[in-house]
Amino acid sequence: MEISSGSDYTRYWLDYFLSIPGHEIFCEVEESYILDRFNLTGLNTEVEHFHYALQLITDSLEEDIEDENLRHEIEKSAVKLYGLIHARYIITNRGLARMVEKFRRGDFGKCPRVLCQRQHVLPVGLTDVPFQKSVRLYCPRCEDVYFSSNKKHNCIDGAFFGTTFPHLLLQVYPQFIPIRTQERYVPKIFGFKIHEIAEQHRKQDEIYKENVKRIEAAPEE
């Protein structure tokens, strides 16, 4: 979509952004938080076309941008800026409150591990540096991370959630910490645990070697 002062896109950018398939993983950052300059500290050096991008996000872009390449760059910058603001917002009290509701509803998905019994998961970044790794899903039951089954999530930057978020949420809302699972899948062959079969084979090999040595050491008749 093009940026122009009369388009619905510029007037309702955030609604459009959150409606994109896969973006249900984001929460809506309050406009008052976005407009507070303290919350944007340092982002002007990380995001190109910072002022244009901020105006686009807050639906206050009044200037027509005729250069198509510049419009495209501003759109990309707006996504990056909102993502980095989002990473900061979701570790505030109000942001955590919004995200815990999404977690409770299962908006982020469920753990693919069978023994976790469809435990709700939380988005997490493996790094806080943008454009390094896509968002992953953290399971608080098995305490491991997974790729999302929703392929659209794999195109979302993990830095837009950060490395701190899921762990801080569970510290603030300990009632959502599940009982850690001790259950592990045990591979078996014909009902025998594989490690037990391996142990049996090891003992059989030892007995065989001992018998060979005994035969070799026996005096010839």
TrEMBL record:
Gene3D superfamilies: 2.20.25.20, protein kinase ck2 holoenzyme, chain C, domain 1. One of its GO terms (molecular function) is protein kinase regulator activity. Regulatory subunit of casein kinase II/CK2. As part of the kinase complex regulates the basal catalytic activity of the alpha subunit a constitutively active serine/threonine-protein kinase that phosphorylates a large number of substrates containing acidic residues C-terminal to the phosphorylated serine or threonine. GO terms for biological process: regulation of transcription by RNA polymerase III. It comes from Neocallimastix californiae. Pfam families: CK_II_beta. It comes from the Eukaryota. PROSITE patterns: CK2_BETA. This is Casein kinase II subunit beta.
